[in-house]
Amino acid sequence: MTAAASDEVVVCPMAELPPGERCEVRGALTYGVTVFNLDGELYALLNHCPHRGGPLCRGRIRPHPVSDRVGYWEFEREGEILRCPFHNWEFDIRTGEALYDEKVRARTFPVEVRDGQVVVRVRGRRQVTR
Ligand code: FES
Asked: For residue 3, is it within any domain?
């Protein structure tokens, strides 16, 4: 068992979070915290959309469509954009920034792997284990 400080959440064993997957701790910080593995790098987001409080981290991960002319588009940033299931606002998983306005952000947290466990620092909250 990994020792966790009072402001940390043990999310899951790293072995259960391969690239392209996500792991959620329900109840952490009321809404839950989800860790995403993007090509081996870990990012933690609060499962609470800054728009109207939707369960952001349960949304689909989509590429970002870009277009330079009518009737044509391409997709970029495959696997990096999270779409809220309530009203489809899109967020950069790495930063929490909304794509349409960088001033709107989902809450993010520092995350690390310790003794094979994924651990999120949530500052000032009680420990929650999965
Ligand atoms: S609550 Fe997430 S887009 Fe509206």
From this structure: no
Q: What is the CATH number of the domain that holds 82?
A: 2.102.10.10
Give the chain's domain count. Answer: 1
Q: Is residue 93 in a domain?
A: yes
Per residue of the chain (130 residues), what is the pLDDT tens digit? Answer: 566 777 899 999 999 999 999 999 988 888 999 999 999 999 999 999 999 999 999 999 999 889 999 999 999 999 999 999 999 999 999 999 999 888 999 999 999 999 999 999 987 544 444 4
β-pairing, 60-69 with 41-46? Answer: unpaired
Q: Is the CB of 57 under 6 A from ligand 1?
A: no
- Domain span at residue 88 reads 8-125
CA dihedral 60, 49, 10, 17 (to 10 degrees): 10
- For residue 84, the ligand 1 atom closest to its alpha carbon is 2
* Residue 64 within any structural domain of the chain: yes
Ligand 1 binding pocket includes 43 (Cβ within 6 Å): no
Protein residue with least CA distance to atom 3, ligand 1: 87
Residue 130 lies in a domain: no
- Does the C-beta of 86 come closer than 6 Å to ligand 1? yes
pTM (2 d.p.):
0.87
Please name which of 86, 22, 92, 80 lies closest in space to residue 55, comparing C-alpha atoms: 86
